[in-house]
Amino acid sequence: MNSDIRKLPAGFGRLWTAQTVSSLGDGVTHAALPLLALALTRDPMALAVVTAAGTLPWLLFGVLGGALVDRWDRRRTMWVTDAARAVLLAIPAAAAALDVLSIPLLAAVAFLLGLGGLFFDTAATAYLPDLLGRDPALLERANSRLRSAQTAASGFAGPPAGSALLALGRTVPLLADAVSFALSALLVRSLPAVPRPVPHARQSLLRQARAGASYVFRDQLLLGLALRPAVGNIAFLAVETVLALFAHERLGIGAFGFGLLLTAEAAGGLLGAGIASFLGRRLGTGTALTCTAAVEGLAILGLAAAPNPFVAGFALAVCGAGMGATMVLAPSLRQAIVPAHLMGRVASTSRMLAMCAAPFGAFLGGWLATAYGVRTPLYAAAGLLLAMTAVTATMTSNRRVEAALRAAAVPADDSAHPESRDPVQEGAV
């Protein structure tokens, strides 16, 4: 049967619901945690500590976390992680109720929530291809629905809900997020079981982690897929760092108008996620990825030159559409071609590269704005995105994509397909 007309399995509906509920809770906490911190201190460095704490787990444990996920049952990892996060949020809620909430406690909670997100997201990325039989078309449809729901829940509904709930009491948004994690855990626990990865009991965790990273760096297609978000994060964080200042000084808009700009970007993201599968079918996945990367660079160039808020909003919407399509096509392709026993490590390595690149972008944006003016980071980001598009175009070409999909469709045979072997088993380090 043609995979384009096959239905997604019933288990996907429960996974979609679980991730949507959890994303809504994430959006609530994303808005509430900074506001809770702001109620405790006006020290910018203290506020930055709370914000940065949530990203540290990816920087410190990204590859090791992927190696652990490749050893563990993915479904159990997801529901146990969400159950643990539900219990964790009860701690700051109790502290807020007892009026003993503090910046160190909020930073610790943000760090542990980020650590839970590392395990949940990596396990979910590895679980989905097994649930869908590694069918590329089904993976694109599934990731499109997951991405759209995540954007709507965490980008549109969650933050205003978090602000509104905080007005009812400091404990309310934390408890609401705890309930979302609990519901997600229950739904994930009811998902169908999939085959557990083959364990490598004699191999150390560090060696397995290094094998996952090596697998990404020695495969041109996977490396190209990993470079896009890594370089993209440098560019986008450079823009994000000065966007509010750019909107105020160059576009003449206030806080409300700035919120509308961000909404335009999120709306574009929804559109991009929705049309990703169509673009992949019409252009081929490789060409579609090159086009969306070019669109992002040109859109940021248009934003830098925007003479008024309307052009700026349109440019951000176009950029969001390119990002939304990319974030469906690239993970779907990775899930279709990476062997199951390496999926967790490959996914976490790619995510870690993107997370490590982000601080460089923030620093670059601040330095360029200070030294050369507020538009300069936007022009630099556009140039960086377009250069990345040119460099990775051949790495993620249709020819490479089709070859990788054909190789993945052949039953595993290490002697016949050495490129599919786990480098640990070959003695590589």
List the helices and strands and how they pair.
Elements: H1 10-40, H2 44-53, H3 56-71, H4 74-97, H5 103-131, H6 136-168, H7 172-189, H8 205-217, H9 220-249, H10 255-283, H11 285-304, H12 309-337, H13 343-372, H14 376-392, H15 398-409
Helix pairs in contact: 1-2, 1-5, 1-6, 1-7, 2-5, 3-5, 3-8, 3-13, 4-5, 4-7, 5-12, 5-13, 6-10, 6-12, 8-13, 9-13, 9-14, 10-11, 10-12, 11-12, 11-14
Low-confidence stretches: 413-429
Q: Based on helices, strands and strand pairing, what is the structural class? A: mainly alpha
Per DSSP E runs of 2 or more residues, the count of β-strands stands at: 0
Largest sheet: none
State the oligomer. single chain
Molecular shape: globular
Q: Span between N and C termini?
A: 42 Å
Q: Treating each run of at least 4 consecutive H or I residues as one helix, how many helices?
A: 15
Estimate the strand proportion: under 5%
Structure commentary:
The two termini are 42 Å apart. The chain is mostly helical and 429 residues long. Residues 413-429 have low confidence and may be disordered. Helix content is 79%, strand content 0%.
Quick summary:
With 429 residues, this protein is mostly helical. The protein contains 15 helices and no strands. It has helices at residues 10-40, 44-53, 56-71, 74-97, 103-131, 136-168, 172-189, 205-217, 220-249, 255-283, 285-304, 309-337, 343-372, 376-392, 398-409.
Give the key terms.
429 residues; 15 helices; mainly alpha
